[in-house]
Write a structure and sequence with these properties.
Blueprint: H1 6-16, H2 35-48, E1 52-56, H3 61-72, E2 75-77, E3 102-106, E4 109-111, E5 116-120, E6 135-141, E7 145-146, H4 149-155, E8 164-167, E9 172-173, E10 181-182, E11 189-195
Parallel strand pairs: 1-11, 2-3, 3-6, 4-7, 6-11
Antiparallel strand pairs: 4-5, 5-8, 9-10
């Protein structure tokens, strides 16, 4: 009989420590029963993450974005549907975003349980546009807000585009002297426009 190697002993110990029963996953159905509950939770979670939330009508998007532009200055716009009223520069490379104060685009899916918004390449002029400007404003329709990440993943196609990201609040870190810094490696503010 051969003696057990150190590797065999470790694998045997890991195998013997494995739980005997499988873990039952939680039932996520019915956690948020109505669309209005999803919108309220979505808004609360966004505000808790430091985002500024504006609930507006679709016909108020232009005025709201113009108000942001007056405050932030130069703006870039990524969404095709909103380009009618926006001065869109030609953004071929991240360097073209130098000095951009505000980037506006439309989110595809909002997630109530964590306040995240899914964006993909087709919604952004350039993926760096989400990270380099001083502020980002995301427009999301109330009907695009789902209760859970499970439902969000059912609606998005991860492999359909080259880039996709969930955005939830402005950039922040507390790595330096355990002091919270907003905008440390990205926009200092995030505005979310929920439209109905």
């Amino acid at each position: 009989m051969t003696e057990m190697t150190a590797r065999d002993k470790i694998l045997a110990a890991v195998s013997s420590a494995r739980p005997q029963t499988s873990t039952i996953l939680p039932d996520v159905s019915g956690r948020v029963s109505q669309q209005s509950d999803s919108i309220a939770l979505f808004r609360t979670n966004l505000e808790n993450s430091g985002a500024k939330v504006h609930v507006i009508g679709k016909n108020e998007i232009e005025d709201t974005v113009n108000d942001f532009s007056d405050f932030y200055g130069q703006r870039f716009h990524g969404d095709i549907a909103l380009r009618d009223f926006t001065n869109v520069g030609s953004i071929a490379a991240p360097a073209d975003l130098d000095g951009a104060a505000l980037f506006v685009c439309t989110g595809q899916v909002g997630v109530a349980e964590n306040g995240a918004i899914w964006l993909s390449d087709s919604n952004c002029i350039h993926r760096a546009a989400l990270f380099l400007p001083e502020a980002v404003a995301l427009v999301i329709e109330a009907t695009s807000i789902v209760p859970t990440m499970h439902e969000a993943y059912e609606q998005i196609q991860i492999d359909a585009e080259g880039f996709g990201i969930f955005v939830a609040g402005p950039s922040k870190t507390a790595d330096i002297e355990q002091s919270l810094v907003i905008g440390a490696h990205g926009p200092r503010s995030l505005h979310v426009l929920i439209t109905s």
